[in-house]
Write a structure and sequence with these properties.
It contains four helices and 18 strands. It is mostly beta strands and 288 residues long. It has an 18-stranded mixed beta sheet that branches.
Length: 288
């Protein structure tokens, strides 16, 4: 099996073409491949599959380093767009893909950026999912013997956003895992720690569900801006500064899709692992 190692702002991925080759990934194999000492090492595994719908170009699957499958990864989507063009799987600039919970359009611009239509943020607790009696702009939670004020939103995956005074001193390593698995998030959640610099600029660290803190989280950046706009803290266009670099997020508010723009980078490519070629991608029910 051939694969590429890619990263978006330091958020790194193993990307596999399951259109032209048959592959199989068990959760155990994914965990071993994700190991940075004994395996390939990555935050997420991205798998490019043939489309289920003839109107689409590809099906986009995402697996966390712990082997769990998830429905969304914004940084991964940018790398996905670069990968399918680089490998000659398409030459389109507007790439239409399905995911586990919907559809996305990935646009490669003339200045070598990738713009992703992330869809409309969903603040309904049942969509996140988050245990609450009704939708609120701010929720009060108890975690690690602290009272936490947060916003929650679904970007196709669950997010909790906490405003902090300084991301450099935020308790990401201790509070992140406690909130990720909090009982009010039945499917766990990605936890964002957001510092508002000004209405057009935030700093952000994200503790990702199933991966821990990463250098960047695209859907986390989108979630932070969506929550910040909902709470009246941010403008419609925001620069998000993550440990790995910058993303630009734009959202006009309810009734409109949210857009994420950023560069994508490839660090290595065309590596080979024999073990994963013994079957098909886990759960794949259509031709490769």
């Amino acid at each position: 099996m051939q694969f590429s190692k890619m990263h978006g702002l330091g958020n790194d991925f193993m990307v596999v073409d399951a259109v032209t080759q048959n592959v199989f990934f068990s959760p155990e194999l994914i965990r071993r491949l994700a190991d940075r000492h004994l395996g390939v090492g990555f935050d997420q595994l991205l798998v490019v599959e043939p489309p289920y719908d003839p109107e689409l170009d590809f099906h986009y699957r995402i697996f966390n380093a712990d082997g769990s499958e998830v429905a969304q990864c914004g940084n991964g989507a940018r790398c996905f767009a670069r990968f399918v063009r680089l490998k000659g799987l398409t030459n389109k600039r507007d790439i239409r893909v399905s995911t586990a919970n919907g559809r996305m359009v990935l646009t490669v611009t003339d200045d070598d950026l990738v713009r992703v239509n992330m869809g409309e943020p969903n603040f309904e607790p049942s969509a996140v999912p988050f245990r609450a009696n009704k939708a609120e702009k701010t929720y009060i939670m108890r975690a690690a013997e602290q009272t936490i004020l947060c916003g929650v939103v679904s970007m196709g995956n669950p997010h909790c956003v906490i405003q902090v005074d300084d991301v450099d001193t935020a308790a990401v390593e201790t509070l992140g895992p406690v909130l990720e698995s909090h009982e009010r998030f039945p499917e766990r959640a990605n936890i964002g720690f957001m510092q508002v610099v000004k209405r057009e600029h935030i700093r952000l660290r994200v503790y990702e569900r199933g991966a821990g803190e990463t250098q960047a989280c695209g859907s986390g950046a989108c979630a932070a801006v969506a929550v910040g706009i909902q709470q009246g803290l941010l403008a419609e266009e925001v620069r998000v500064e993550l440990p790995g670099g910058r993303l630009d997020i734009a959202w006009k508010g309810p009734g409109h899709p949210l857009y994420m723009t950023g560069r994508r980078y490839m660090s290595t490519t065309d590596l080979f692992i024999y073990e994963a070629t013994r079957g098909r991608t886990a759960g794949n029910t259509h031709g490769a």
